[in-house]
Automatic annotation (TrEMBL):
Organism encoding this protein: Toxoplasma gondii TgCATBr9
BRCT domain sequence ranges: 202-279
UniProt xrefs under InterPro entries: BRCT_dom (IPR001357), BRCT_dom_sf (IPR036420)
SUPFAM superfamilies assigned to the protein according to its UniProt record, in alphabetical order: BRCT domain
Name of the protein in its database record: Poly(ADP-ribose) polymerase catalytic domain-containing protein
Amino acid sequence: WQALRWDDVIKVAAKFGGRVKENHPLVQEHKRRSEGMWNLIDALKEVPKKQLLAILDANEIFYNEKKISALEAAQIIADGVLFGRLPKCPLCDTRALIQDGTDIRCRGYMQNSAMRCSFLFSLADLLRPENPPDNSATGVAESALSRTELFNLPIEAQRMPVFRQWKPPKDIPGAFKLGNPVGQPPKKGHVKYDSEAEDDIPKKKELAGLKFACIGSTNPPRHALAKLVTSHGGIFQESLDKDTDLLLVSDDDWAAAKASQRYRDAQLAGVAIVRCSFVPALLSRKNVEPQVTLSEAKKALKKAELFAQASSLLPKVSELRTQKSNLIVVDST
């Protein structure tokens, strides 16, 4: 319940007969931490779950892909960005710790077992902040849970609008002690871009951070397509997985590809499906004049909307058939 917004924390405590001592300095500290967290969580809500999980992967954080929600992933990321990466769980040795308010708990499993890890460590009690919590049963000192590593925010994530536009609130207790991962130099193997402008992207690095896979025969041939992708910083995969960004389909084989299992898997996974010609077009760096002006496009869209509205008022084919059959019956009598 401490992972909720601060106002909801107060309400939940009151509902169960408790009262959070909001004037206590320790409670005030956790209130500001909570508000700072939710400031970033709200911004991360717009990011697709797949991209959030990629950030967790970059930090080797354990999660169950089927069970974790986008909101929970956003909470873990917001916590890490602000306060640093939590260490591995001292009980199951898995990087699955999460801090909910004043509690640090584990979401992982015991080694080589289907048993959930039960580790729970309380940093404070919001209802009785003057009394230090008793964590002796854990056999762990609070210092063992100290954050000593900066959260890893891959360059692909730093380029997301949410991080480029995010302005962290000031005066959040404990925030950025290890540094702000937004704007940090990329780790080895990544390319740093200062902006999304085409001219700022280094040549031969246009596809950096993107992973491609394809269906069946392609034009250009698969080996040539793979060489083109890798020579411009991309990654070409033989198989489709959760990290794939783009699935390439031959321009001449689109209909057949749609019937394949790989095509359906890509749709279910939310992988973008494009024609092979998309890759050379993406690398061309040519400014193409639009075939219609913006005003012409708006007029065409307006006509389409009016047509759709008019179509919805027309009787359906089944209704026309019913009317016709009724007329035939009347004539026969």
